[in-house]
Amino acid sequence: MGDKAIIMVEEDMEGERLDSFVAEQVSGLSRTMVKNLIKDGLVLVDGLICKGSYRVSEGQEIIVEIPAPERLEIAAQDLPLRIIYQDEDLVVINKEKGMVVHPSPGHYDQTMVNALMYHVRDLSGINGELRPGIVHRLDKDTSGVMVVAKNDAAHRSLAAQIKDHSINREYIALVHGQLKENLGTIDAPIGRSKVDRKKMAVIGNGRPAISNYQVLQRFNNYTLVKVKLLTGRTHQIRVHFAYIKHPVVGDPLYSSAKKHFNLESQALHAQLLGFIHPRSGQYLEFTSEPPEYFKKIIGELEKS
């Protein structure tokens, strides 16, 4: 028998072609294979058959019937996982730098999902077998606090809060140069880069993206900032600060600067996450201290 993947379209995925979207989200399926599945009526968008060129919208449910030979088993793995809160509805994780959130082409195991399947008994199934419980994501090399849903009701509640931008998300980042203003807003639409499909970019027809920032410390050639996201686009902070000519230090995709502090990736950390609990209705807020490498860099800059 074959397998079935159920994917919810998140806000930063809106506007993608259906065939490209499914190929990116479902491991083991090439775009050619996806086109054939669509042609055979095995890909449904909210229960309807659509063409491969159809543009998906936030909140839609995509159901993909996957041929049996392409089935991918996701194994539970005893990997280190820093759980800072857990109840019957959700788990709050302090994700470490370098951990991929969910399986994808090139990362079939050793992900946070593999660890969750070992350490947590129940996870919501809304996002399918490859991304159980995953409501939102952090980039592989971004550390910090995340929430994971343990049942579908909690998943829907948290996803709705993300959609209406009521979840409180704060990050700290070390960026190149000195920002002139102590407080600022970057309001620039983000979409998939037309030059490099692996990158996002500020483009005229992109999705609205707003980042508020506050300067925490200034150094000779760097600025430490706190960033509050009002939207949740892929790579939003990295794209926005590169756009205003202050890229995140160490960013391999969006900074052309030479390697600093021996960093192989961006100095970016999700330090605060606040949301309304799906069952109790109470506001919960969780924080995460910057990792040691981040503290060490700041210590070096304070001495210079």
CATH architecture of the domain at 169-270 and 294-303: 2-Layer Sandwich
Q: Name the helix and strand elements from N-terminus to C-terminus, one letter apiece.
A: EHHEEEEEHEHEEEEEEHEEH
CATH class assignment of the domain at 169-270 and 294-303: Alpha Beta
The counted number of beta strands is: 15
> Uncertain runs with pLDDT below 50, 5 residues or more?
none
CATH superfamily of the domain at 169-270 and 294-303: Pseudouridine synthase
Let me know the largest β-sheet. 9 strands, mixed
Query: Based on CA inertia axes, which overall geometry fits?
Result: globular
Radius of gyration equals 20 Å
CATH fold label of the domain at 169-270 and 294-303: Pseudouridine synthase
- The level of helicity is 10-25%
| Overall pLDDT score | 89
Structural class: alpha+beta
Q: How much strand content do the residues show?
A: 25-35%
**N→C terminal distance:** 63 Å
Helix segment count? 6
Helices and strands, with pairings:
Elements: E1 3-8, H1 18-25, H2 31-39, E2 43-45, E3 48-49, E4 61-66, E5 83-86, E6 90-95, H3 112-119, E7 143-149, H4 152-163, E8 168-176, E9 183-187, E10 190-192, E11 200-202, E12 210-218, E13 222-229, H5 236-243, E14 268-276, E15 283-287, H6 292-303
Parallel strand pairs: 7-14
Antiparallel strand pairs: 1-4, 2-3, 2-4, 5-6, 6-7, 8-13, 8-14, 9-12, 10-11, 12-13, 14-15
